[in-house]
Design goal:
globular, nine-stranded mixed sheet, alpha/beta
Length: about 200
Amino acid sequence: MTQRQARVAIIDGGGANIASLQFALARLGVAGELTVDPDVIRSATHVILPGVGAARSAMARLRQKGLSSLIPQLTQPVLGICLGLQLLYETSEEDDVDCLGVLEGGIRRFAAAPGRPVPHMGWNQVMPVRSSPLLAGVPDNSYFYFVHSYAAGISPVTTGSTEYGWQFSAVVESRNFLATQFHPERSGPLGARVLGNFLACS
């Protein structure tokens, strides 16, 4: 299967910024279908779980649509973006919500400090932790665009890290589940490379 033959399902968790993701995929020659239909999601070659918003409301929507039990069972490549990464974990400090439980551990909030406001917003460097399909061809310490107030700590699934007061997971990968805390769709040519790397996964 070539990249252009990929059938991408974008899970509609109720967040914003979907148009940017669809435009980024279109520039790669791929159409991303926004959906909550379990059959469409199961039949897709690649699934993206994006997110801009709150963990509790996103999880409530996923549960309402019957997707909270489906997502952990998916066997094709799945990409979480920003909140989508956080939802893959067991819990989040944001409203103390239970998440999808694909990855062990919980999500915690940044503490604001002088010169380090919350949310963490803007361009920051991603440092490789170990070999990563998502970061193939991406130079070490490249800059990507972040907007978030919560993050995952470093763990065995971390393949890329970023520092903002403490080292957090910028890229995680476990089996067929991959995720970025940054927004590849808003990160220029290197972000496009990350999305292309995901579409090359099988």
